[in-house]
Structure formats: structure tokens, C-alpha cells
Amino acid sequence: MHLRYDVGTRDASEALAIVTARMMLRKTAHVGVGEYDRLLAAAGARNVDWNVTLDATNFAVTLPTSHHALALWLWSDQMGFFADDQGAFEQAFALSAEERTRKVQGQAMGLGEDLARHELYPAGHPYRVPVGVRDSAAIRTAAEIRQLHDTLYVPSNATLVLVGDVSASAAVAEVEHYFGSLSSGQHKALPKPPPLPATRVRLDMAANIEHEMVVVQWLAPPEPVAERTLQTLAEVLGGTRARILEWELADRRGLVTWARSFYVPRALGSAFRIELRVAPGHTPREAADALFEFLTHASPATFNEQVIATARTDVARDRRELEETCVGRARSLAKGTAALQGPDLTAADLSRSLQEDVFSHASVTLLWSRVSGAPVAGEVRARTELP
User: Could you tell me which of 343, 322, 323, 325 has the C-alpha nearest to residue 229?
Assistant: First the structure.
């Protein structure tokens, strides 16, 4: 079972969405403190999870069929009977701030995503927010959280997926029973972000890390524009089996020990990321220069048809597997991206997408050098705007 709200950190100042979700889990009008987890555990729940991303808030659980109505009741109480007591707010804020310390300040290269968002997205863009709770001035009272909850965490912004031994008619009747009396609220349209820049920035980073790294992130078109092509391109460059970057930069030049690439779909501007682990005896600058040289001169001849066929197979497999999960189904239903079909992609398609959808857009390059005594999360030693 999966409940997805089309509400993320893009929709609220800094960490309001994260704290709101924590308060929904901690206590509601009919569910006491700690009862959410206790009731689910007593019913034999597995895979109890939640998260808040830039674009969505997700709650998930796996329950025996005989107890699936429990999650419907708990989630409907979170949606319709929010408890905004100050104690819950203060605890939720403290836990969220602690989580940022653990996931950002305590992680190797943990500041990377914060820095990338700051460089790639202009002031006023909904994605230009830090990871987690950082600034206590952004959140003032529990009443502020209630206003956010009552405006955004409503049925019109939610997608509910049930998969299991239950008929569609019975599921619809149960959902109507638990959610039907709630006010549907008003669907929140996507924010209109300011124009995206076309700047290229390099950050020289120092961190107390084991391996020196290069991480490059580009802006890419918002989902689902070019989504299938960019997924395939990421798989070709540095995926599970097709890894032409590794062949070029590791096997041929010996500059890196591995290379990976990722497409990160987002509603207001996706990201395309390449990560390189620098080989001993070489520097992050050498690896980055070689990467950009290779990408600049990439052409249809760069993309072997056999490699493309392998990548297409892997992308199709991954998409099928994702669609068989509740989280994947919820995302597809909410976004309308269930079927991204089209003719087989060619080398020319990938070459064009690399230049037009990735390489011509704004980018930030983080050169991670190993420096004893530097923070493990990293610190900026130099910032350079590139032509």
C-alpha cells in the first residue's frame, strides 16, 4: 500500500513539508503518540516507510490482507484530523534537524547536493532548498504547520495505490468509507519557477574522504520530456552493463577506477549526474577535463548499436520492475507517465540528447580532493565560473 501526496519541499519554505510529515506520523486526533507504529506492528506490518522529496511526500506499508483497512484508517486520520500541538511540533523539528546532521554533516561529501541545488537553481526557484532542516528561523509555530497541512495534504493532491488480494470494487468502497467524508481541498498546481540559468560552475572541494571523486550535475528538461531518451543515455554512459565512460576513462586512459551516470526525473527541472572515482596517481581536475573532452566530441559514432540495445533492455526491465511496485505505480498515476513508449532509440538520438538536453544546460562540477582534517561532509575551497 502506498499513499503519495503531490507535495514536496518545493511547495513549502525550507523544511515545513518534512516537519509536517513527522507530525502526521507522531499523533493525530484519534491516534496517540507512538500508536501509528505500534498498531501497524501488531497487525503484522512490514516495509513501513515514509519520505519527503522535492516533489512528493510518500507513506508506504505492507500488511496482511485481513488488516489492510488499518492503513486506510491511519492515513485518513492523518489527512483529515491533524493534531497541531506544540510538543509534537518541537519533537518533529528536533528529529528533522538531527536527521540532517546525520545525513548531510555526517556523510562523506554530504554537502554536495546542497551545493548543487544552490548553483543550478536561481533565487526563488522551488528546488533551491537545502536538504532537510537547517534553519530554525524558517519554522515558527505548530499553527503554521496546520495551515500547510490543511491546504496541501488533501485528497485532491493524493494518489493511493493498493496491490494485493482485494477486489477493485471492495477497495473503492473501503477508500470511500475512510476518505469520502474528508474535504477534497484544492489541487495545487505546479509552481512556476523563474527561468533557469545556463551557467557552468566548478567547485574545488576538500573533504576527509577515502577516494577522490568528480561529480558533475547538469540541469535537464522536466519530466516526462525526453525521459526515455535520458534514461537510456544514462544507462549507456554509466549504467549496469553498458558503461562507455568507464571504457574510455578507466580502461583506455586509466584516469578513474569507475564511472556511473544517473538521470533524476523532477517535475520542475530534472538532473543528469555523472560520478567518477579518481584513480590513484591522478587528480580530480585531470578526470574532469577528460570527461568534458569526451562529452564535447561525442557523436553518433560514439554510441555502439550493441551497447544501445543492451541499455534499452536494461531500461525497459527497470521500468517494468518499478511499475510492479506500489511506489512506482503511485508515481506513474500521479504524474501520468505510466507508458513512455516510442520507436527504438538510435545513436543519433542519444548524441543529440547529450548535446541538447544535457551538455548545453547549466552544470556544476564538484572536484572532491582528499584532505586530512577537512570536514567529512566537505567544504568549498574555490569557486570558478566556466565559459
Answer: 343
**CA 165 vs CA 53, 66, 85, 174: distances in Å:** 30, 9, 38, 14
DSSP secondary structure letters along 85-138: -HHHHHHHHHHHHHHHIIIIITSTTTTHHHHHHHHHS-TT-TT---SS---GGG
* 385: phi then psi, degrees, rounded to nearest 5: -85, 130
pLDDT band of 264, cuts 50, 70, 90: very high
- Per 3-state DSSP, what percentage of the chain is helix, strand, and coil (rounded to 5)? 45, 20, 35
Count other C-beta atoms under 10 Å from residue 60's C-beta: 19
Q: Is the pLDDT of residue 149 over 50?
A: yes
Q: What is the pLDDT of residue 339?
A: 45
Task: Report the distance separating Cα 337 and Cα 223, nearest Å.
Answer: 9
Considering just the CA atoms, what is the radius of gyration of the chain in Å? 23
Structure confidence at residue 132 as a pLDDT band (50, 70, 90): low
Please give the pLDDT value at position 340: 55
Higher pLDDT, 37 or 344: 37
User: Omega of the bond prior to 194 within 30 degrees of 0, cis?
Assistant: no
Residue-range domains of the chain with CATH: 2-179 (3.30.830.10), 200-386 (3.30.830.10)
DSSP characters over 173-238: HHHHHHHTTS----PPPPP-PPPPP--EEEEEEEE--SS-EEEEEEEEPPTTTTHHHHHHHHHHHH
Instruction: Dig out the grid coordinates for 318 from the structure.
Output: 527497470
Q: Are 375 and 101 in contact (CB under 8 A)?
A: no
Taking the C-alpha atoms of residue 366 and residue 217, their distance in angstroms, rounded to an integer, is 9
How far apart, in whole angstroms, are the C-alpha atoms of residue 276 and residue 108? 15
Tell me the one-letter amino acid at 310: T
